[in-house]
Amino acid sequence: MNPYNEREVLALLQEEDTLRKGFERIVAQYGEQLYWQIRRMVLSHDDANDLLQNTFIKAWTNIDYFRAESKISTWLYRIAMNECITFLNKQRATNTLAMDAPEATVIDKLESDTYFSGDQIQLALQKALLTLPEKQRMVFNLKYYQEMKYEEMSEILNTSVGALKASYHHAVKKIEKFLESID
To answer: Which of 2, 5, 15, 109 is most buried, taking the most CB atoms under 10 A from its CB?
Structure first.
């Protein structure tokens, strides 16, 4: 297969007989990185797979509305982040009804996840990330793990660059404080 070329893929998406091929190239190009971004938000492998599938289903059903005003990756990340927020809000509502500390359920889920291969440091970082508000967690994950530029994050999250820099700064400080408290 040829290397991914956004212009070629956009051309494939314009024609009904090549639409599926274009979308398959999108899934092949972005599937893994979207999976990991979602996984960092929801922690569970199974939940991340479900949300990734939902992301691609939404993208496929709305492909006619994509006007190429932003990059395909930006559009996909926006869909994925919205899926994560919806999922986390539902999960929080369910866990809040079940117990006083909903984060405990998420940590238990992570620790029992057979696909989690992190050591104690990774587990501590994940616990620290759970203490962050969702927006700060998203910004931290996009910047720290994806090494995404603030300008691209701004398009995905529909937030100013200045606000994103502040969110990242606050997230880092909170994580540092959390990690210092467990030493």
So the answer is: 109
